[in-house]
Amino acid sequence: MKALVYNGPHDVAVADVADARIEQPNDVLVKVTATNICGSDLHMYEGRTDFEEGRVLGHENVGEVIEVGAGIDKVAVGDMVSVPFNVSCGHCRNCEHGLTSYCLAANVEGMAGGAYGFADMGGWIGGQAEYLRVPWGDFQCLRLPEDAREKQNDYVMLSDIFPTGWHAVEMSGLKAGESIVIYGAGPVGLMAALSASVKGALKVMVVDRHPDRLRLAEQIGAIAIDDSKGDPVEQVMEHTKGVGADRGAECVGYQAHDPQGNEDNAATLNKLVSSVRFTGGIGTVGVFIPEDPGAPDELAQQGKARFDFGNFWFKGQQMGNGQAPVKRYNRHLRDLIAAEKVTPSWIVSHNLPLAEAPKAYEHFDAREDGWTKVVLNPA
Ligand code: NAD
Ligand code: ZN
């Protein structure tokens, strides 16, 4: 089958690889109809992880079931399904508690959490390909309604970024009528902004420096804060009568940088602590990693950050973090899409065939104007 293969930093190509196939009785084989490029792919694309050369990328997948293993009894051939980016078994201790992002069976011994086409997440083959093998298929596949193909650009957000944005807001502790500041107006930050509005936020503030992304935030009623035009903390204070936002969300991750491009992995965390009020809450879904050999400073290379713990403690804030447990949210978010209460596809800038994926990575990685979210359509 054709698939997008990682050959090294800034080098991906469409190549012929072994066909994905049913290997276990509980496997489901999916013909991939839509698969997104994610900001998480960019950490790998830029060579900032230990993603192995020759591996296939892609963890935001939707497709049609074309074959099922002998042990599958819910999912059927012909179903259109959303596949969570987390590979999870459904019956380990963490899955039983809804923590499918820390499944104990989907990674190597001693590590929790699996994902398709991801560094250090169990070696599963990605879905930026013609076909995808989905293990534990009955547990993993979320069946989509009749309008699956028509609203594919909406439903494709269910495998990762819509639940991830929702999770960031959930972890922040937002209640209806409260304000929230979101750092990062990439796809994840924009989904956090959408989620906060659906959850009844009084005021949603989104910080970034890319005008096209900030415009998308404004389109759903958020306040755009351009940090290239002034200190974002001061701007948040102006919008909150000097008190700070009730809640905050980190949607950037360890490659956070200033508008000039100087990297500081603690930048957004510290700005959040300063932007959020005393006793407020923060949800961190931007990725941070235990080792980052490509980081510009020695501390960050060891996965450590100059986190302003003193200010965080002094303000009595709370923070939640980690990979999002997609299955906790994807069913009700699917139903919001089906009922036309939300249209997460408003961020999609491109639908492209798999053959154009290498070019799309280049543009999206450069955060070029107008490249806000790329959906690849292999089938
Ligand atoms: P992206 O790279 O497209 O967007 C990140 C945005 O952050 C960019 O628009 C960039 O301009 C902005 N930014 C950089 N430094 C900033 C700063 N100091 N202040 C404000 N904004 C800043 O990526 P994305 O797809 O939106 O993903 C965002 C993060 O979420 C990534 O780290 C990704 O790996 C992570 N992620 C986590 C999960 C999870 O389950 N926890 C799931 C999906 C993605
Ligand atoms: Zn993703």
TrEMBL record:
The keyword Oxidoreductase belongs to this UniProt entry's keyword annotation: yes
Keyword Oxidoreductase in record: yes
Start and end residues of each Alcohol dehydrogenase-like N-terminal domain: 24-145
Pfam families: ADH_N, ADH_zinc_N
Cofactor(s) this protein requires: Zn(2+)
Residue ranges of domain Alcohol dehydrogenase-like C-terminal in the record: 187-290
CDD domains, alphabetized: PFDH_like (cd08282)
Keyword terms: Metal-binding, NAD, Oxidoreductase, Zinc
Family of this protein: Belongs to the zinc-containing alcohol dehydrogenase family.
Name recorded for this polypeptide: Threonine dehydrogenase-like Zn-dependent dehydrogenase
